[in-house]
Task: structure prediction
Amino acid sequence: MIPQHGTLEISRSRLAHNVALFREHLGKQMLICAALKADAYGHGSNLVSPLLIDVGVKWCAVYSFEELAAHRDHPWEGILVLSPLVLPPRMDHSLEARLLDALKENVRVTVSDGESAVYLGSLAHNSLGRPIPVHIQVDTGLTRLGVTPDAAEELAWVAYKHPGLRLEGLYAHFSHGDVPGHETLLQQSAILHQTAARLREKRPNLMVHLQNSGGAWNLQPPASLGLDMVRLGIALYGLQPSTDHPIPGLQPIARLTAPILAIHRVPPGTGVGYGHTFVTKRTTWLGIVPVGYADGYPRSYSNKGKVLVNGKPAPVVGRISMDLMTVDLTENSQAVVGDEVTLLDNDPLSPVSVYALSQWAETIPYEIFCRIGKRVPRVAVAPEGWGHAESRQTAVAS
Result:
């Protein structure tokens, strides 16, 4: 039976290439923490985790405790929960059970206030019999999550004193990491390291980590700045943090494909899809593809998007529905039912690259991948499993 869904193919070799690219740039001794939040930026956590571990990445970061489930059974040395543990105004007795279930030995927790930190420490001391490693995020200028440098020192003192807590790390996140030479790179880095220097008087082995993909590439050399680890996100997946300042050599790891389910030959004047927003002007061959807005292909692409059929562009016509879309195959006369359609290509120069799709949606590539629905299978492929674009030199579409 022809699959009635799209498939997101993930290239093992390209993922390994992107990791190697940053190892060469940062120095092979630099510890890499892979950002796997939002289901590995839509690429599939359960699939991406073992691939990264296979190439020697030892740490990962997730956003919340709810995201831990996809990662904690993999042999990570450390899993950092980026969203801080903050107690609710009214305590729910089930919170303690959920926390205890989540706090495996490789889990690290971000704390941002003394009350929540003490609660976590007491829970660990009384129920687990071991201290929980905690990290403190310092707001060095992003003005999002994190505490001030002074508050970080106060919070560190709470962790020092509590037998159920072990202060392991201090970190920050760049506001302009994707802009080479931006003044905030050195400013934010200096704030973090000044704070770390004071804390290291009591905790000499304190782990200090910074960056995002752009910052890890643009601020050099990290080792001389006292960093123990860098956190990499979008670039691991081969996508540019900024197309204005591209990182050379990145290879996109994912390609979204689907089969043609049906082909119809219709006369001029035929309305297509809900509302008949497209009406044929000639005898037209229409292909039905089993991907819709429930799969993350936005309805806004109706009568605007393109796909590739046998390597040739074909326009999306009519409204995209929840499960299906229609493409005009008239210029692809050799297409037959079952042929592969590429909706999102792994070639950045392709007319259906993630950069093209993000322009159609007036958004950024991050969002395009995070939209891809859960019912789209993620499948790891070896190099020989790729189509025509696998061997091309990759670049950023202008």
